[in-house]
Amino acid sequence: MILPNKFLEEKDSLLYVGALLLDKLDVPSSVSELWNQVNDNKSVNNYERFIITLDMLYVLNLIELKNDKIRRINNDSLFIC
């Protein structure tokens, strides 16, 4: 469900949906604003899947909630070798 495999297409994985959400977070948004931007996308599918994807992004430290707005965290320093 999180990663695509031979039974789950890329567009149906949470990783793909997470990338869609991160792409929309150029500007911090509320949960409802973000939902309104992506709810017509068939990969997002439903509100539960949307929330699970937000949970995954939060656990991966890719987003944070500040002042009732979700914002993308810049993690460029994590990948410096």
Structure annotation, total helices = 3
What level of helicity do the residues show? Answer: 25-40%
Radius of gyration: 13 Å
SSE arrangement, N to C: HHHEE
Give the structural class: alpha+beta
| DSSP, total strands | 2
How far apart lie the N and C ends?
A: 30 Å
- Spatial order of the strands in the main sheet? 1-2
Mean pLDDT: 90
Strand content: 5-15%
Shape: globular
Main sheet attributes: strand count, strand direction, barrel closure: 2 strands, antiparallel
Instruction: List segments where confidence is low: pLDDT < 50 over at least 5 consecutive residues.
Output: none
Descriptive keywords:
81 residues, alpha+beta, two-stranded antiparallel sheet, 2 strands, 40% helix
